[in-house]
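Notes from hallway chat w/ T.B., transcribed later so I don't forget. T.B. wanted the structure written out for a chain they're using in a teaching module, and asked if we could keep both sequence and structure tokens in one place. Agreed to drop them here.
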Amino acid sequence: MKRLITLLRPILALTVAMGSLMPVAHAAQGEGWPTKPVRILVGAPPGGTADIVARLLAYELQGPLGQTVIVDYKSGAAGTIAVQSLVSAPKDGYTFLLIQKGIAAEVPHAVKVSYDPFKDIVPIAQLTRQGLIFVGNPGLPAKNFAELVSYIKANPGKIDYANFGIGMRGQTIGVQFNRLAGLETGAVSYRGSPPALQDVMGGQVPLMFDAPATSLPFIKSGKLRAFAVAYPKRIAALPNVPTFTELGYPDLNEVGWLGLWSTPGVPPGVIAKMREATLKALQSPAFHKKIEEQGMEVGLSATPEELSKDVRESYERQGKLLRSINFTPE
């Protein structure tokens, strides 16, 4: 008997070891996940583009996941507070982040951040795609793009454009536009779109490059005039507004997108299941309709690797442009 126990001891040890590994294997495969509510952090205040998309997505995800999806607002500091909350959360797949790709492609150039945009966070799905709309106060003497360019050239150094954050795309696209069109406009930076739009509508600053979701309601009500769209094609909500490419400026068409992000260390199986549920949610007719009404398009089914590549390329372009104007982070 003693000899039998001695012979069996390695087998018993292997069985115990394999049993202890089973929960790890199951977690890696995402088996059993989720067993409790899933939280989506939003790096922007309620009322903006991210908020609209987050609430739509949370509703659509509850079916595929079989759990409540909670939207948790962590706005402030250009979205970095939300990123820090994600990075510090347990790597168990119950906390995700919904934020613009600019959090990795633009923000690290504009402010000093405590995270590595390419090691600490990873995009797992593209939710929406959108460009910027070049809008202006309807009281401007220019009624279309050509008249606007002529008006700015006739008033060098006297026309400013508002933007929603220094060092961000809303500012740097203005720098590009100046160079390409031979203009001299100044930039006035605000902490977000709402206060900037208020000053544009009030006439304090005549122009702005803004996101569709925040500017469309004012364009439709006549409080803003749309001159051009910085996107590869016209947007459905503004079919009569030309793209910059149509107007002779093909470099002003970079695509911005909202994505769902996670962190390295979350079990691959959980990431795969969350991505699958998200892509399914994006196919909802109600989701499509609401997104198009906001002047956006539903995101592509690009892989996480493709999204990371796009972020890296945008990061490098933004950095090159900011270095060319001797920009220094805050």
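Follow-up for T.B.: The chain has a mean pLDDT of 90. Might be a good example for the class.
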